[in-house]
Amino acid sequence: PAMKVRALQRESAYRWFGELDPAGRLEFLCGLLDLLNPLELRFAAACLEELARKDQHSLRDAELRANSAAELLNGAAPGAGPGEATAARSDLGDAAVRGRLLVSLALLRSDNREAANALYRTLGPPRDPRGNGAAQAGQAGQAGQELVLLYTMASNHPAFAFHHKQAFRLTLRELR
C-alpha cells in the first residue's frame, strides 16, 4: 500500500509540474537543482546533456549566434535578419523579438559573460519592460507570459553576474 501511495503522489507531482506555465516549470526546476548534492547534480547534468544532444545539430547555428556578443549587440540574435538593428531588437512588445531573446537565453552557455552582458544591455534596467511596447502587446496574455518567462530565465541563468540577476528579479517581481 505504501508503494501505491508513493506512486500516486509521484504521478500527482508530475501532473502538477506539467500544468505549470513554462516560467513556473523553470523556476521550480532551478529550485530543485539547488537542492541536489554535487554527485546528484553531475548525474543530472549528464542526463540533461544526453537529452540536449538530440537537438544539437538543428540548433547549432542559433547557438553560435546566441553566444556571440558581437552578433547579439548588432541585432543578429538567433532568427534575426542580417543587419537588424539592436534598437528594434530591444522592443519587448514585439513577439518576434521576445522569441529571439528566449532562444538566445536558452542557448547561452553558462560561462559566456560577454554575451550575457550584451543580453543584459537589451533586457536590463533602467527601463520598465511594460513601457517598452509590451503593454500594448497584451500584458496579461501571451506577451505577459513570454516576458515572465524571459525574465525568469535571465534571473536564473548562470552566465549573468549577481547584480544582473538581482535586476532581472526586480523586473520579474514588477511583471507578476
TrEMBL record:
Residues 14-54 form the RNA-binding protein vts1-like alpha-helical domain. It comes from the Eukaryota. Residues 59-175 form the SMAUG/ZCCHC2-like PHAT domain. InterPro entries: PHAT_Smg/ZCCHC2-like (IPR058599), Vts1_dom (IPR057327), ZCCHC14 (IPR042344). Pfam families: PHAT_SMAUG, Vts1. PANTHER family: ZINC FINGER CCHC DOMAIN CONTAINING PROTEIN, ZINC FINGER CCHC DOMAIN-CONTAINING PROTEIN 14. This is Uncharacterized protein.
